[in-house]
């Protein structure tokens, strides 16, 4: 996308310091930069983005105090503690940095600040400084609707159900797409989650607008509903990563040698497995997963992030002789250039945790999914993938080797999988049309640019 005019205005962007939030914020920054805006990235010291990858941006780090608790980040399945911590520890540093940026002399007047919606404290600070704040929601619209409907505080007992409870498989009345067993996964701290979501939704309603990393054709009915509820301008200009050739904002070093391995595989033959940057699984789950992959007759690419297996450094929990058994049919790496892997002709399905970035990337490349959601928004995304869009299958019973083998066969070899591939291929076409001139996302971007210039 070319910039045909200079707007001489600056936008300040402030991402949450986690991979799934940093990537879309930096992608959005690139998009706005092409429209002539000067970009300043304010960021925490924890998980600081690599400045050298973005020489066209100005970076302003702020103290966050997060290093004091950072060693706990990868050892817990519940992020609510860290979100509440950041929303307290960043208030004063954010205010001070923002005030200094607004006071800097120069021709580039600050038009607005765009913060992750999870930084709900930022609305009060922006109001104090009389600066418009736009919230970036890095999750899906459907997920936000589900959050607004769920009985997080009033029915705390539903988060403690077990497989033996009669309601475990039942639908949630407030949001029938979900089952109570999905709710159990969303959080281990319902009161903490209630506080965060209430604050986030209230401050989204108080903002000057909301940017969504999604596209209209995927979530049109959800967009209509949320727009009536929030009553602030909404801009669906995603998927952000499709505006540019593959570029990385990864906090983990990628293994690019796997691309040449994929070149040697047959089209649609490889099972790609990756559960994102924060998911942790137990040793027994890891071993069941390994047995399931070993028992299929298909090549696989498996991303095992160091520290992903609880109590292990990396691969020491693999079953005996696993590597000898799979030989060159399987590749295990610490991290991958995921958009390129999904775009590769050899990739036949994506076994994913259903973080929103991963889900969108799979849709963009027309790759059907196997869903193993773990927490927060992932169970909601997985239900949309399997039950609404019907472009993947949910691994309902967790990591059991027989269930794994069955689902992989269904997605990769059976008619059901072919139908999923057709449906997600149709969505891929919609994505490609949405970001070109005249498409829904392109129009939304134009509207956003005009809106920011009106401040």
Shape: globular
Strands of the widest sheet, in order across it, are: 3-2-1-4-5-8-9
Strand content: 15-25%
Assembly state (oligomeric): single chain
Number of helices: 17
Q: Please state the structural category.
A: alpha/beta
Integer count of domains? 3
CATH topology of the largest domain: Rossmann fold
CATH architectural name of the largest domain: 3-Layer(aba) Sandwich
Q: Give Rg in angstroms.
A: 22 Å
CATH homology-level superfamily of the largest domain: Glycogen Phosphorylase B
- Proportion of residues in helical segments: 40-55%
Question: Residue ranges: pLDDT <50 for 5 or more in a row?
Answer: 1-6
CATH first level of the largest domain: which class?
Answer: Alpha Beta
What is the CA–CA distance across the termini?
A: 24 Å
**How much is the average pLDDT?**
92
Major β-sheet, in short?
7 strands, parallel
Number of strands: 15
Q: Could you outline the blueprint of secondary structure elements for this entry?
A:
Blueprint: E1 9-14, H1 19-34, E2 38-44, E3 58-62, H2 80-89, H3 91-103, E4 109-116, H4 122-128, E5 133-137, H5 141-149, E6 171-172, E7 175-179, H6 180-186, H7 190-206, E8 209-212, H8 220-230, E9 234-236, H9 258-263, E10 270-274, H10 283-295, E11 300-303, H11 322-326, E12 330-333, H12 338-343, E13 347-352, H13 356-364, E14 369-371, H14 378-388, E15 392-394, H15 401-413, H16 415-434, H17 440-453
Parallel strand pairs: 1-2, 1-4, 2-3, 4-5, 5-8, 8-9, 10-11, 10-13, 11-12, 13-14, 14-15
Antiparallel strand pairs: 6-7
Helix pairs in contact: 5-8, 10-15, 15-16
């Amino acid at each position: 996308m070319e910039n045909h005019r200079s707007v001489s205005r600056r936008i300040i962007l402030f991402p949450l310091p986690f991979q799934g939030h940093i990537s879309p914020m930096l992608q959005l920054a690139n998009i706005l930069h092409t429209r002539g805006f000067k970009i300043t990235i304010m960021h925490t010291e924890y998980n600081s983005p690599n400045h050298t990858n973005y020489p066209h941006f100005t970076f302003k780090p702020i103290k966050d105090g997060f290093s004091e608790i950072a060693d706990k980040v990868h050892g817990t399945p519940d992020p609510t503690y860290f979100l509440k911590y950041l929303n307290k520890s960043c208030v004063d540093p954010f205010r001070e940095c923002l005030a200094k940026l607004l006071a800097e002399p120069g021709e580039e007047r600050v038009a607005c600040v765009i913060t992750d919606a999870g930084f709900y404290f930022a609305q009060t600070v922006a109001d104090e400084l009389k600066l418009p704040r736009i919230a970036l929601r890095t999750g899906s619209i459907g997920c936000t609707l589900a959050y607004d409907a769920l009985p997080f505080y009033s029915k705390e007992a539903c988060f403690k159900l077990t497989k033996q409870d009669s309601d475990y498989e039942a639908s949630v009345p407030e949001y029938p797409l979900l089952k109570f067993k999905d709710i159990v996964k969303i959080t281990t701290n319902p009161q903490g989650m209630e506080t965060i979501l209430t604050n986030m939704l209230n401050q989204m309603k108080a903002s000057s607008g909301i940017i969504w990393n999604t596209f209209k054709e995927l979530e049109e009915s959800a967009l209509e509903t949320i727009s009536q509820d929030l009553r602030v301008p909404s801009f669906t200009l995603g998927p952000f990563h499709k505006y540019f050739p593959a570029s990385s904002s990864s906090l983990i070093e990628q293994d690019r040698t796997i691309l040449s391995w994929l070149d040697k595989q047959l089209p649609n033959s490889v099972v790609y497995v990756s559960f994102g940057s924060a998911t942790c699984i137990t040793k027994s789950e890891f071993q069941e997963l390994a047995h399931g992959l070993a028992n299929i007759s298909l090549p696989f690419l498996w991303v095992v992030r160091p520290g992903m297996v609880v109590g292990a450094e990396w691969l020491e929990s693999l079953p005996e002789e696993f590597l000898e058994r799979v030989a060159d049919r399987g590749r295990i790496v610490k991290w991958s250039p995921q958009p390129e892997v999904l775009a590769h002709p050899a990739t036949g399905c994506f076994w994913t945790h259903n973080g929103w970035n991963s889900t969108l990337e799979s849709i963009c490349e027309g790759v059907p999914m196997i869903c193993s959601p773990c927490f927060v928004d992932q169970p909601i995304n997985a239900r949309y993938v399997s039950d609404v869009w019907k472009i993947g299958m949910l691994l309902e019973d967790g990591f059991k080797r027989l269930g794994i083998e069955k689902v992989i066969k269904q997605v990769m070899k059976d008619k059901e999988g072919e139908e999923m591939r057709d449906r997600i291929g149709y969505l891929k076409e919609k994505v490609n049309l949405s970001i070109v001139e005249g498409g829904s996302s392109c129009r939304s971007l134009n509207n956003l640019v005009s809106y920011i210039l009106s401040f």
